[in-house]
Amino acid sequence: MKFTKLVPNVFFENIQDGLNLFVDCLEFSIGYNDLCSENPCCVVQKDMLSVFLFQNKEYADKDRPEFRLHTDNIEDVYEKVSKTHPHFLHPNLNKITLRPWGANEFALRDSTNVCVIIQQWN
Question: 52, 6 in Cβ contact below 8 A?
Fold first, then answer.
């Protein structure tokens, strides 16, 4: 068995919240686009990563996911995000911090409590 990519689904009451986090803040681009339909959705992509965003209040109310994005230059990511979108910095991990498991991390949280942890292993 071989797998090449994991593409998570993330549900938002208003899909614009997901676009604000992934496209505006993290600079993903929109690949597949069905934003004008009755049930808006899209796939956002960056490098080899993809996330499927859906507008669906029922599912958004049930689950607020947490993701980890690995990088090889956490300082650059932190500098850019903290300057352009400081409101996304998670109050519990708003600075680059060496974690007990050996990774440097900081976290982002959007207004719907979707959390993205940016991580660099030492």
Answer: no
CATH 3.40.50.720 at 9-121, yes or no: no
Q: How far apart are CA 70 and CA 97, in angstroms?
A: 14
Torsion of CA 26, 94, 63, 13, to 10 degrees: -60
pLDDT score for 1: 81
Predicted confidence (pLDDT) per residue in 53-63, tens digit: 999 999 999 98
Global pTM? Answer: 0.91
Question: What is the Rg, in whole angstroms, of the alpha carbon atoms belonging to the chain?
Answer: 15
Question: DSSP for 15-67?
Answer: HHHHHIIIIIIT--EEEEEETTSSS-EEEEEETTEEEEEEE-HHHHHH---EE
Hey, where are the domains in the chain? Answer: 9-121
